[in-house]
Amino acid sequence: MVQADGLRIQYPGRLGRPGFVAVDGVSFRIRAGEVLGLVGESGSGKTTIGRAIAGLTPVTGGSLRVLGKEMRGIRERAFRPVRGDIGFVFQDPASSFNPLLTIAECVAEPLIVHGRAGDASAARARVDELLEAVQLPRSYGDRYPHELSGGQRQRASLARALALEPTLLIADEPTSALDVSVQARVLELFAELQREFGFASLFISHDLAVVDLLADRIAVLYRGELVEEGTGAEVLAAPKHPYTQRLLASLPVPDPAEQAERRELLRSITEAERRA
């Protein structure tokens, strides 16, 4: 589905200044039906990778193959046939929806753009199916984005991403803007939909615990470089890189004694990084 080898993405500098390397020498795979969780702090390059897979950011070095297409130097005409096989869930659905369109019109937009809408009644029937799939009443299709809560908008965003029955779905921090209780319900829904539809997914997050709930494999990105990759059990049980250790140590746990141990571990890691 996705294969990156030595992937490098550099944003051009301005006024003769050197460019900024957002992703440097990253290699990973996403197999059919697999969820890869990509974890990293803000500015680590994880969103840049997601955008490159979706054809929204150009690849400047290495290789990135998406659904059989080499993305380095690809033209829109060559990528267009597979664009409909890729769904994208944005971090902030409020900004990704047109406020002047109803939810039904927003969800139907990919069907119309890719010529799969048929007539108006067929398009609305498909929208109703999608809304039910993400556990929203059909009547919500007649509402506008501002009339839905954050969690409801993210469900509608999932419906739109699934409209074309993609084989690959990119979810960029889909729960970070939601309350904790709403996050849990959206994550459960995402897992259910992934099992039902069987799509492969790149799930991007800064939260290691969230990724562990969903991902078959976890990749840790730090300052544009991939520093660790493995199953959830491998990464959480025996993290090798100091950054992964710091992420794990910062996770809250219910046991006070274990929490105290993690605080001490986090303090020692931070001190070691300062000395280095």
Which key features would you list for this structure?
alpha/beta
SSE diagram, text form:
Blueprint: E1 2-11, E2 20-30, E3 35-39, H1 46-53, E4 61-66, E5 69-70, H2 76-83, E6 86-89, H3 93-96, H4 103-113, H5 120-133, H6 150-161, E7 168-172, H7 180-197, E8 200-205, H8 208-214, E9 217-222, E10 225-230, H9 232-237, H10 242-249, H11 256-275
Parallel strand pairs: 3-8, 3-9, 6-7, 7-8
Antiparallel strand pairs: 1-2, 1-4, 4-5, 9-10
Write structural notes for this entry.
- With 276 residues, the protein is of the alpha/beta class.
- It has a domain at 239-276.
- The protein contains 11 helices and 10 strands.
- It has helices at residues 46-53, 76-83, 93-96, 103-113, 120-133, 150-161, 180-197, 208-214, 232-237, 242-249, 256-275; strands at 2-11, 20-30, 35-39, 61-66, 69-70, 86-89, 168-172, 200-205, 217-222, 225-230.
- A 6-stranded mixed β-sheet has the order 6-7-8-3-9-10, with helices on both faces. A 4-stranded antiparallel β-sheet has the order 2-1-4-5, with helices on one face.
- Helix 5 (120-133) crosses helix 6 (150-161).
- It is globular and about 65 Å long.
- The model has no long low-confidence stretch (mean pLDDT 86).
- GO terms for molecular function: ATP binding; ATP hydrolysis activity.
- This is Oligopeptide transport ATP-binding protein OppF.
- One of its GO terms (biological process) is peptide transport.
